[in-house]
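Minutes, project check-in
Item: structure for the 276-residue chain
Input as provided by the requester:
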Amino acid sequence: MSEAQSVGGHDLSAGGDVMDRVAACARAALRRYDCHPDASVELLNVSENATFLVRDPGAGLSVLRVHRLGYHTEPEIASELAWMDALRAEAGVHTPRVLPATDGQRVVTVPETGSRERHCVRFEFLPGTEPGGEPGSTLTGAHFEELGEITARMHGHARAWPRPPWFARFAWDYDAAFGATARWGRWQDGVGVGPAEHRVLSRLDQALRARLGAFGQGPERYGLVHADTRLANLLVHDGSVSVIDFDDCGFSWYLYDLGTSVSFFEHSPEVPDLVD
């Protein structure tokens, strides 16, 4: 599904009732913080999660993320936040700070309906724009050099970081991507996969499984990754670069981050140079 179609697994094409409930969750979560009575929430974007801009007359701007249903548990979200904290403190990677609720909770859980709850996290607001995203600017290899340098710092930190014993995140491996219970669904069930397409993609599936198996999962190749290292997840402001959106971080090949950096335009002729 596209970003405009789903929030937390619910189809939005039938109307705005789901987004109304998600916005109500955002307002309910905001009441758990020491906010001004006139603080408001404004939808910024909808992807797998819904992200809101919080305008607080007393404290200024912040960002509230309302999580999709049934994707991450509270300990998994807390693990994401722990790595963000460690990267900022130990690796010089600028990540947004988590703003705790009045009771100190970093992950706030609010009811959506009588039987469903959504997890929410509030972050500091970071100003900036995507590299190459300013009007009239041109995307260059220098932007990818910067992305590569930041990603290398995250990988170096992941190799040495003593993770908390309760740390829990997904794996992005063959089974998660292509296996019988692939996280985003089986490719065999994809739209337009008929008998001819199935034969071609089956050969590709077999080749990928064999190559990944031969490549292995040694500690120099496989570990904790951001898993969505696109330029859209960097913010540049006054010469400082921040990294956002660790929602998909988990265990995979370090090369996974290279693949995500060119996702959505991997067919473009300049990609080999950007990879270099």
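Outcome recorded: The CA atoms of residues 178 and 217 lie 17 Å apart.
No further action items on this chain.
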